[in-house]
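Standup, Tuesday
Yesterday: got the pipeline producing structure tokens again.
Today: sanity-check two examples.
Blockers: none.

Example 1:
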Amino acid sequence: MGLIDDARRAAREFEYSADDVNKGVKEFIRQMDEGLQETGMSMSQIPTYVTAVPNGTEKGVYLAVDLGGTNFRVCSIKLNGDTTFSLTQSKVAIPRELMVAKTSKELFSFLAKQIESFLKTHHNDHFEEYHQRRHAGETLTDEHFFQLGFTFSFPVHQIGINRGHLIRWTKGFDIADAIGKDVCALLQSEIDALHLPVKVAALVNDTVGTLMARSYTSPGKTGTLLGAIFGTGTNGAYVERLDKVTKLKKMEDSGDYDTSTGNMIVNTEWGSFDNQMSVLPNTPYDAALDKESNNPGIQMFEKRVSGMFLGEILRRTILAMLKDGKTELFKDESSGTNDVHSTCTIADDSPLYRQWGIDTSFLSIAHEDQSAGYRIMRQALNRDLGVDAASSEDAEAIKILVEAIGKRSARLSAVAIGAVIISTGNLTLTAGDAIDDKDQQVLEEEVVDIGVDGSLVEYYPGFENYIREALREIEGIGEKGEKRVRIGIAKDGSGVGAALIALVAGGKG
């Protein structure tokens, strides 16, 4: 058996059939429903207390701040009311000593001072007018304050639109006295100490922000159903009927929320879908990756879908082929004289031998390469993986593996998207009613709008096409239903998305 046959045999381990997709969708819906009824389930289905999505006509100026890691970003977003907006922002590094400060006051005081500096630089007229009114003893109303959306990318227990208790720090932060405290209140306290015209209106998850940003900027008449991230990680947030979020009534610390829309956005945390491995595919490479990860048995869906893990799955598949003495990968026999009469070698310190050694960007290069003899990919093998003088046959074999791993990721992504579409009943109109038979155009009001963000869906070649292929295979969607699904890029969920959540929280626009 030749090298290409060996590669195809390995690639077959990543096949995810139409039957697999449909089994996955049914189980995904079951776990979604389970998470809406009880806390502590495989899929968290977190109520966000955001009860409406924008439609693009909203106007006003809103603030957003984003504490997502080692930087702090402050933005102001001017919504023009015609699906467009303008954004002004500043970014500052968090000093290392504040990430491990003795008290939370030190960190949140620093954050409030950055907001003050931003207002003085970009909104000084409003800032000065507010202080004149305050010193004159005038009564100040909501219209004198900027509404702010706070994207806080650490685990929190959210109990209201602008209330959430810190569960634990991650990403190098460690401030013990903040644990269990309301992070919105901590920030508001320091904002008030500086007498700033700012109200923390909403605590924001960036995936929910992606949904909001897409719903404001999307071209259609219908609101966006789902915001999804397919990048380093993966997650989704969608519009659910409030009467299905039955666990809200059981949560003793549940905050107030607007019931007038009959809806609530739910943050699925779908990276942990099927941690029990009842329907997810499981190759030896997936199992080994999970076993040696820092969270075995957790985030099992994410470990098969997101960009952070695809390179590692490829690396382990390549290593398995190299260890198989019968396979000719990266051996000169694989293509006669090795194309250029040279000897293929793998550097002793090759990233192939190091956990997480292959970046997902390599998969994008390999998937896209159509050059003669796979010249671009062979250069990448040399530059990125320390494989010198690989043959065109070696490159073709790697490309076969890459396509199989990327395609499986996209088809699994379609399981999540398809499950949300079906469980929310967004295709209940018969597809025939939704399509103009004259020219097979989908009627605008029957479009199901999906907002997506992340490097995989934006840059990985063919990712959306693979998703759509799988959607057509899902019972309850099919070819006519898939035509109704519009997938569009939604940028900056933690900026414009956070501002829009502040808008909805304030009941304005």
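Example 2:
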Amino acid sequence: IWTLLIGACIGVEKFTLKKLIGVFACFAGVVLTSGADISGDTDQNRGIYTTLMKKRIGDEARVNMALFFGIVGLFNIITLLPGFVVFHYTGVEPFKLPPTGRIWAIILINSTASLVADFCWAYSMLLTSPLVVTVGLSLTIPLSMVGQIILNSQSSSGVYWVGAGVVFLSFLFVNHESRQREPSS
């Protein structure tokens, strides 16, 4: 919801009742599939970040993604490293290197997967709209639960499958609505 509201306020998204219905349907589907936390703080921050990025960059041809993420990483190191050092020396959160090669491998594989996912997210946001990408991210919740069902031989209730279907259909609905509202070139 935050991406739609912020995007409409700064002119990146066109606010329509259909988009609002699609966003609420997606939200309801996520709640049905996972019983998700509905506080919204993280969603609000991601909505601001996504929408402002689209507003400032606009077209994917205007940005070098490797340089962009490099600068974001450098900014994070500069701003977060002092807190890391303070937490370690005050004993709030002591730092220790991973004890085994297997843990190092897990860290490196997950870091690489996260980097690739962030690149894909940024490009998809520039190619479509912040709202479509944000609603598309909601698909990860039912998909990850399907993975758990397959890997762990679990079963799910009908409520889960209804929620997963609502999330999927709301993504298609919002994507279709966004495509109809795009100005033709």
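Quick observation on example 2: The chain has a mean pLDDT of 82. The radius of gyration is 19 Å.
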